[in-house]
Write a structure and sequence with these properties.
This protein has seven helices and five strands. By secondary structure, the chain is of the alpha/beta class. The radius of gyration is 16 Å and the shape is globular. The two termini are about 15 Å apart.
Length: about 170
């Protein structure tokens, strides 16, 4: 079954307030091997975005969130919150009746400066994300990041499927 999982292309939703062209550049850099397929979504009002994600939960296996979702306040889809707030809301919806039916990895992406300035000092939000990427490293580490994203998705799906069957999850007798 794990072989079957590894042969499919995983769908990742990337939420970013950047221009579509800039977001697409990062998405392309994180999907060069073709193991994941990234679609881009602009953030919007917190409750509305949470509802959209719950409604469309079957269409993605993981999320990538830009740290400063509130950086671009132009257009009809703007946010007044940052990624840790959204991730916290998402994580709390994993255990609600009207929330997500399964858990999935959530990744953080941002510039080095924003990670140092806004994310690193806020230690309470570090455990909300499975991994943090810097946008500047996508060019030279994109393939590594793509493999990492895929392995997190496979791990989440395996744990979801096999629950507490630890020998099966670990592939041991």
């Amino acid at each position: 079954n794990q072989k079957k999982l590894r042969n499919m292309k995983y769908k990742v939703l990337y939420i970013d307030d950047e221009t579509t062209e800039r977001s697409q550049t990062y998405a392309d850099g994180l999907s060069t091997l073709g193991k994941i397929e990234i679609s881009i979504k602009k953030p919007t009002d917190y409750e509305k975005l949470l509802s959209e994600l719950i409604e469309g939960q079957g269409s993605f296996n993981a999320l990538i969130l830009d740290l400063k979702l509130d950086g671009n306040r132009r257009g009809d889809r703007t946010a007044t919150y940052a990624a840790p707030s959204l991730a916290s809301g998402l994580r709390s919806k994993f255990f609600n009746d009207d929330g997500f039916t399964h858990e999935f990895p959530i990744f953080l992406i941002s510039s080095n400066e924003n990670i140092k300035k806004y994310f690193e000092p806020d230690t309470s939000s570090h455990d909300l994300f499975d991994y943090t990427f810097t946008k500047t490293n996508v060019g030279n580490k994109g393939v590594h990041y793509e493999q990492l994203i895929e392995s997190f998705i496979v791990a989440y799906q395996t744990i979801q499927e096999d629950k507490t069957n630890f020998p099966k999850i670990l592939g041991i007798e």
